[in-house]
Amino acid sequence: MQPDEREMLKKTLELAQENNKMLYAIRRGMFWGRIMKVVYWVVIIGTAIGVYYYITPYIDSAVGAYGNVKGDLRSFGDLFKLNK
Question: Where does the pLDDT of residue 83 fall: very low under 50, low under 70, confident under 90, or very high at 90 and above?
């Protein structure tokens, strides 16, 4: 093997090792990116479900109050219909 061929082989080896390090870093970044995306969506969906269960009793009481007011207004309207 001639000295220039040996030098080219060394440069090729160094370049291949550098490429391998970069590719490994890219794969590691993609892996952690996927994990963070899953965590992000779990937090978003979990928060939405938690808020739903936390707010549900208040919404039910508001709907019940609205039904009571609606029934009271209907009976109030019926009072005026009876007088005519």
Answer: low
Residues 6+ apart with CB under 8 A from 1: 9
Q: Please calculate the CA angle 43-46-48 and round it to the nearest 5 degrees.
A: 105
Could you give the count of Cα atoms lying within 13 Å of 3 in the half-sphere of its Cβ? 0
CA-CA distance, 56 to 54, in Å (whole number)?
6
Q: pTM here?
A: 0.59
Query: What is the per-residue burial (b if ≥16 Cβ within 10 Å, else e) of 22-34?
Result: eeeeeeeeeeeee
- Quick one: which H or E segment has residue 68? helix 3-83
